[in-house]
Amino acid sequence: MNKGMVQVDQERLRAQLEKKLPPKVRLFQLDDIPGVMRSRMGWPVAAALMERWFRGAGYEMPEYMKQGRAPYKATTLGSMQLEEGVVTMGWALGFARVRAALAKLQVSWATPAGIRQLQKRADDWIGIRSPQGWRLGNLAQAAKMLDETCQVNFLTFGRMSDPLDDLYGAMGEATLKVAVSGWVTRQGTGRTAVAIDELGFYLRDSYDFSDGDRAFLSQPLGFWGYDGVSRVNPPGGQVLISEQWSHESEGKARGHTYLVQNEDFRKWRAKHGRGGDFIVLSDVHRVRLPFPMKLEW
Predict the structure, then answer these.
(1) Are residues 195 and 85 in the same domain?
(2) Is the pLDDT of residue 125 over 80?
(3) CA count, 13 A, side-chain hemisphere, 223
(4) 182: Cβ–Cβ under 8 A, 6 or more apart, which residues?
(5) Confidence of residue 16 (pLDDT cuts 50, 70, 90)
(6) Residues 120 and 204 in one domain
(7) Residues 6+ apart with CB under 8 A from 24
(8) Domain that holds residue 34
(9) Cβ contact 118:152 at 8 Å
(10) 154-168 pLDDT, tens per residue?
């Protein structure tokens, strides 16, 4: 039999079979998540942060950067590694767990560790400031500046069991920091007195998909599909990291959900050459104290 005839017959048969199949539909993949966050979940902040990650050049955050240690302090980071405009304290305070964290930190920041940090901040300026006194902390500055000049304590909040909302999608577990402003004077006895009259609160988070030391278990981030996210375990496979199409009805295709884990984002970065980790800092929420808090050492 002529080989050419066999090939033609096979192609004709394949074409006839495809006509009987449902039209091809695009299956859900990892980089569809921001669109679902925005359009289906109503999570604009979470969507904006993830869109930035997908757009960015491939970059894996070093552990020192995640910790805010030299040489990766926020004041040294460029715009590729630092996001300062998306997360605001006005938005964050719309969530009860942020308000609770702020209220707790406001009344408990002056722990022994907090006082030691305050003392260090003040002592850094002794000898180069007026002996008549000076103001410590300019809370009108950006959070990255406060981080190095007058931040004294912090509180970490957020759990896997938190409500599935924009805050959960944007930050998950995050750090609320407190900076102080007040008048510092040197006493005749060589002691230092500080009168704190204003506090500044801001959020810090590392936007990355590292699993740290959990080499054998990547953190699950929910079961995602075109209709949103769920914590339950419905039937479905691992999320796709590149475009795939399937012969099935659009309704069936849109009903699939897929397990998403941290490692999927790392695989996506390796495949596409994009996906840049970055540090997130909010603006500063300032709270004027009804009367100064006086400390001396």
Answers:
(1) yes
(2) no
(3) 12
(4) 135, 136, 137, 194, 195, 196, 197, 198, 292, 293
(5) low
(6) yes
(7) 245, 246, 247
(8) 24-45+216-274
(9) yes
(10) 999 999 899 999 999
